[in-house]
Please model this.
Amino acid sequence: MTRGPKKHLKRLNAPHHWMLGKLDGIWAPKPGAGPHKGRESLPIVLVLRNRLKYALTRTEAQAICMRRMVKVDGRIRTDMNFPAGFMDVVEIEKSDDRFRLLFDTGGRFVLHRLDKAEAGFKVCKVVRQETSKKGIPTITTHDGRTIRYHHPDIKKYDSVKVDIATGKVVDHVKFGVGATVMVTNGRNQGRIGTLVDRERHPGSFDIVHVRDARDAVFATRLGNVFVIGRSGEEPLVSLPRKSGIKYTIFEQRDARLKASA
Model:
């Protein structure tokens, strides 16, 4: 019996949202240890090879990383299996490319292109709030950051705008009815809308109801939503095309036929 964590990942067992071909080989890149869970992340090698097409093979992707060309959240990453996740900023200075990892309505990662100003910050969800043994108030974000002496208004489920260069909180958005949220898990992953209601279920999962731009209302778990903007204001980050609106397969077909006509 083997001991320790598994160091390999077969392609058939890889997350579906990576969109790897079934017949393209036996193995898939195994995400390394990092701020995001393995199945909720996208290794850098897939960003370079499968999405941006800057590398044809794994070896070429490794050469790009080892030349210190790739930054994730402002830090050079030479490990091509480093797990980049939701809201992370991937930067390649040599090609003047900057992307933010977001979701489309199919639950797949989208590389959303950014300008230099927007690439300087990211939005993080507060997943834990506590006081240390020495009485220091701290919050923990979804990407593994621990921020000390935060603003007393910041609570769990709120979102904070973090300056990537300094790691300081420059703004925060409260979780509540009327906030603009993005669903980051579940069947509605990638959808964006306005929070309209919260159902409390002690001992179980709280349920929230969200209304999108087409006035369609859907429900999901409280832990699946990520606040990205205040009520009546623009979101803190720019959004990919379709703006988180989910279309049926028939509407998608009609749009394709109209575009090709």
